[in-house]
Amino acid sequence: MSESRKPNLATNVGGVSVEPRSQTASDSDSDAQFEAVLASVDDVKGWMTPGQARLLWDSAKAVPAGGRIVEIGSFQGRSMIVLASAANPDVEIIAIDPHAGNDRGPNEIEGFDTEAESDNAVFNANLERAGVADRVRHVRKFSDDAHGDVEGDIDLLYIDGAHRFAPARADIDSWGARVVLDGTMLIHDSFSAVGVTLAQAAELAAATKWRYEGRSESMTNYRRVSPSAEVRKSNIVAHLAETPYLARNLLIKVMITAGFAGATRHLGNPSGEWPY
Length: 276
Description:
Elements: E1 11-13, E2 16-18, H1 25-40, H2 50-61, E3 68-72, H3 78-86, E4 92-96, H4 113-130, E5 136-139, E6 154-159, H5 165-175, E7 179-187, H6 194-203, E8 210-216, E9 219-224, H7 229-240, H8 243-257
Parallel strand pairs: 3-4, 3-6, 4-5, 6-7
Antiparallel strand pairs: 1-2, 7-9, 8-9
């Protein structure tokens, strides 16, 4: 579906920042648009830092006309508003979320009917308010049941669905297989949520067809590439380099659970919230 495109996205691999290219006037306009959209989602519930929003924005901007963006796990629309606002008008944008009340956030695994209907209504209202409701097609199903509702290849896949090992691995495997060569896959709660991290270890740490390109906090960035032994070697080294970040996040979670949320500021977590 898509032509080859390799945007220069500022990311971080093992704590090493990769700087973006020099800005042009067009870049400055895009930056202003991004800042406006970021401000507009400030009161939309969800887990997305400014750096992660920028990675989503730049990745969506890079999808060519006629391409396709798929998000797995939209919650109340915070990240989807960023994606839809950045994308070319001729890009198809699909949100997959059953809004079943389950997997809503940290420690919210089981579903509740009241939260399910509320999340769906708020999601639609937020997209409408942001002016992107007509850009997004919502598939209200669990991701493993939604393949038949999405035709063709995917240029940008953003996974922020169920964080347990089995469904997270299935999303990476089955939906990742539909990403075009040189396409992008972003995964949230990497090296933080245990299930997601184990899924990445199983599917990506020694992968030959995905190249790990860095992260913004817990949002990792992978590029679909032609298989090679060199890619596998690079991935193994890059994933191992993230071990200290994983250990830090797990320690923060233990401290919060034990009632020492305030003390996590000493680990670079000033909010005292679950790390993401």
